[in-house]
What does this fold into?
Amino acid sequence: MRVHFIAAIFVLLAVLFLKVSPLEFALLALSILSVLCAEMLNTSIEAVVDLVSPEFHPLAKTAKDTAAGAVLITACGAAIMGYLILAKYVMPRYGEVLAMFGNVSDMGTVVSVLIVIIVVIIVKSVTGTGTPLHGGIPSGHAAVAFSIATAVTLNTLDPLISLLSIALATMVSHSRLLMKIHTKREIVFGACIGSGITLLVLQLFKMYG
It folds into this structure.
């Protein structure tokens, strides 16, 4: 619910800033309310199942999984609705921001990713945490994933491809959190290293390459 409420706040702020039409606002509001209602029903079903069947039971698992699946389907529908409505407002402006960086070189992309990997290994060695490929500060997977996402963004200058690349990098980073290999701080640190170094290196290649 916290995640859904935060997402709803961001969407509503975007709606106010972008000045969408009343009909579009109504559709977005309906999508947001649908997701929140689905989450509340899911929570209610989980509470009832836990009350009726405190011990593990296959049917209890099925009930919970089905309720959670309903929330996922509703959220996907809301995401599609949000994209169809907001894309025409957001994508052109995001494209203008990307155009400010200009195209970058292929060599710069390779060099930036290699530098990110080297920096991650050095930081892990200095902090004495984890191994080059597992655990420690920062998250190497998050660093490389966001490095590639940044490179893809600046190479394509395409808003949709950029957002999909960032979403994929976020999923990779989130998997490390779910597997309890890294903490949120380690993942955020890794993402900042990956994006920051890549952006810096690519701009240097653009200026002096």
